[in-house]
Write a structure and sequence with these properties.
- With about 400 residues, the chain is an alpha/beta fold.
- The chain contains eleven helices and 14 strands.
- It folds into two domains: about 170 residues, 3-Layer(aba) Sandwich (Alpha/beta knot), CATH 3.40.1280.10; about 160 residues, Gcn5-related N-acetyltransferase (GNAT) (Aminopeptidase, 3-Layer(aba) Sandwich), CATH 3.40.630.30.
- Helix content is about 30%, strand content about 20%.
- The strands form three sheets. Strands 8-9-10-11-12-14-13 form a seven-stranded mixed beta sheet, with helices on both faces. It has a five-stranded parallel beta sheet with strand order 2-1-6-5-7. It has a two-stranded antiparallel sheet with strand order 3-4.
- Strand 10 and strand 11 form a beta hairpin.
- The radius of gyration is 28 Å and the shape is elongated.
- It binds S-adenosylmethionine.
- S-adenosylmethionine binds next to strand 5.
Length: about 400
């Protein structure tokens, strides 16, 4: 990949000579050149800025030096190809991992580092219309930096590390934060214990399936806690807030489950239903062994669902305790919670399964509409039916 950076502070880009990016440059995997915008000025003071038309504070970068700098960058093309021009700016599209991945596929990128109040708008138009460049204005985040150099350092690092050959072990890129919309799981290294703190036992077990499940659960929990906005927008009802349950949710969840399963007990004529007799301590403990989601409307808990991986080969996601408060039913929340449960299945899951009362006709109808089929044969729990759905690949 070829990268050109134009700046009035070329020394600011010196860190691009260090670490993995520096090594990729030395190895010829990255061909990176930094240009001084002032080399394209023609006055004694090497002026790159002037006052804004229309008045206002600050200075604006002049069009002419930029046009000449872009001509000089383009003149280096030996194949007739053109760079994708990236202009960092707080008013641009947010820079994301998905964008970094797209840009890492480009053979040639040119970055234009703005300073002062920014660059004369006609430079963007000239680059598009006369030079025929694809131009993207990209923001590092919703805050204002003094110049584009810091943004370019961050973008080049995020993009270049995805270019084949820059990072030795490509597998290390796969499970990173943001690669599949979730944050990374917690990391530990030797020694164990350190300073009286132990490493989670599962990581020492050698059981790769259990480790993968634990890590997936940690990713979900961490994402729900730190960045709930990244989780799938599953609940169509915008008034409903869905999050992973915490121990503080247990008393309310206990009450919700009781209320919902009284209805099930009535429909099936049995009181001895696991959800109705489960002690609160068992419910609390289940937060560690399952992913339990709770849905709130106007602060009130109105629904829940939980999942855990099961089966000898660990390829079935069991969806349990799907419930919606009796007065909140028939508004699509149950279906949304079911979709949420399915959408959080880790890699390797090939089917979803669940159990409901044989006489719970509303539930069975909901599950069938969602693609579940009744499993043939005797159910494990008398008076219930088991339903299964193949995961779409
Ligand atoms: C002081 S800023 C100009 C801010 C501009 N007047 C505005 O309000 O949008 C100067 C330069 O810093 C860079 N910059 C500032 N914040 C940035 C951000 N969040 N992402 C990317 N680049 C940024 C851009 O190159 C910008 O031209």
């Amino acid at each position: 990949m070829r990268i050109d950076v134009v700046s009035i502070f070329p020394d600011y880009l010196a860190p691009l000579d260090l670490s993995l990016i520096g090594k990729a440059r030395a190895d010829g995997v990255l061909d990176l050149a930094v240009h001084d915008l002032r080399d394209f000025t023609h006055d004694r003071h090497r002026t790159v800025d002037d006052t804004p038309y229309g008045g206002g504070a600050g200075m604006v970068m002049k069009a002419q030096p930029w046009a000449e700098a872009l001509d000089a960058v383009l003149a280096q093309s030996d194949s007739g190809g053109k760079p994708h021009l990236v202009v960092p700016g707080p008013g641009g599209m947010p820079f994301t991992q998905a964008m970094a991945r797209r840009l890492s596929d480009e053979p040639w990128l040119a970055f234009a580092c703005g300073r002062y109040e920014g660059i004369d708008e006609r430079v963007y138009e000239h680059a598009r219309d006369e030079l025929g460049l694809e131009v993207s204005v990209i923001s590092l985040g919703d805050y204002v930096l003094n110049g584009g150099e810091v943004a370019v350092l961050a973008m080049v690092e995020a993009i270049a590390r995805l270019v084949p050959g820059v990072i030795g072990n490509a597998a290390s890129l796969v499970e990173e934060s943001h690669e599949d919309g979730l944050l990374e799981y917690p990391l530990y290294t030797k020694p164990d214990p350190w300073n009286g703190r132990a490493v989670p036992e599962v990581l020492l077990s050698g059981n790769h399936a259990a480790i993968a499940t634990w890590r997936h659960e940690q990713r979900l929990a961490r994402t729900a806690f730190r960045r709930p906005d990244l989780l799938p927008p599953t609940v169509a009802d915008v008034d409903v807030d869905v999050r992973l349950a915490t121990p503080g949710d247990v008393p309310e969840l206990f009450t919700l489950v009781r209320a919902c399963w009284v209805q099930e007990a009535q429909a099936n004529g049995i009181l001895d239903v696991p959800a109705l007799v489960e002690p609160i301590e068992a419910l609390r403990a289940s937060l560690d062994s399952t992913q339990t989601w709770v849905a709130r409307r106007a602060g009130r808990m109105v629904g829940s669902v939980r999942t855990h991986v099961r089966g000898d080969s660990g390829d079935d996601l069991f969806v349990g305790r799907l419930c919606v408060a009796p007065d909140q039913q028939r508004r699509g929340l149950g279906r949304s919670l079911l979709e949420l449960a399915e959408s959080t299945a880790p890699d390797g899951i090939r089917s979803y399964s669940l159990i409901t009362g044989a006489q719970s006709h509303d539930n069975i109808r909901l599950y069938k509409r969602a693609g579940y089929r009744l499993r043939r044969g005797e159910p494990e729990i008398p008076g219930t039916v088991e339903l299964v759905k193949r995961r779409q690949t």
